[in-house]
């Protein structure tokens, strides 16, 4: 047997890792078995959130930060030592163990990495909430922001997201989705401070979960929907019932871009089965209204179509100027010094 190979009597080291995004005490069964069978349990962080629960379950945890050599020595005689890893994952300890194993002069114990808890999908959102909490308290800029002051950034980030989608840039899409998500979390954090009607990001998430379930009875209930049109029709009926609307035009924001507004009105009327002739009048506005309604009836988003045509026109202008085809949009960000996103 090689001098550095694990063997009988060399013992065992179990490095137990946990996620801070999972409630303390919720460990896997293999983790609890390892803890109960251990001859010694060590943790370098006396404030580790798992310690009270481990001790409550009967585990004797020593608050110690052994060196690699000390840990190897503690395994002598076939002993098993469990190390409850800190949030950093014990890099100094694992590096030291690797150096000892590579030296060939030390009889190494068995080494096992045992994940004791796992992140669920969406768990990193908890990190975002925690970071936002701290920024709101400690950052001179963020601590002074209001819903009204941030409103323009919400609009800008939404447009930048649409631009990333239309450009097909996956990296940019990921970043812009993050910026939009930041706006949601930021506004939710500000809302917690309202003196009369506060709400939190959990209230926001809980509300949209309830809404999605209610508006998808073909997924969570007994109703059937065979086509996207069936789903959309039910969605609009449910919204009208929830909000007690008397008109299909209610809830359409009139401040949105004109082409999008015209297409939305045409879509609502068509979906509701209303045959409403377009108003006739002089001027480009009525012409654009007719074009937007025509585009919507064929499944074309007029805003998207116009932006695509405008980009083509921009490229033609740049060619006429003798400018290369590099997209100038990412060259600078006039709001970079204001917007933390």
UniProtKB/TrEMBL annotation:
Pfam families: MazG. CDD domains: NTP-PPase_MazG_Nterm. GO terms for biological process: dATP catabolic process; dGTP catabolic process; dTTP catabolic process; dUTP catabolic process; response to stress; TTP catabolic process; UTP catabolic process. InterPro entries: 4pyrrol_Methylase_sf, MazG-like_dom, NTP-PPase_MazG-like_N, NTP_PyrPHydrolase_MazG. Residues 145-220 form the NTP pyrophosphohydrolase MazG-like domain. Residues 317-341 are annotated as: Disordered. Gene3D superfamilies: MazG-like (1.10.287.1080). GO terms for molecular function: methyltransferase activity; nucleoside triphosphate diphosphatase activity. Residues 324-341 have a biased composition (Acidic residues). This is Nucleoside triphosphate pyrophosphohydrolase.
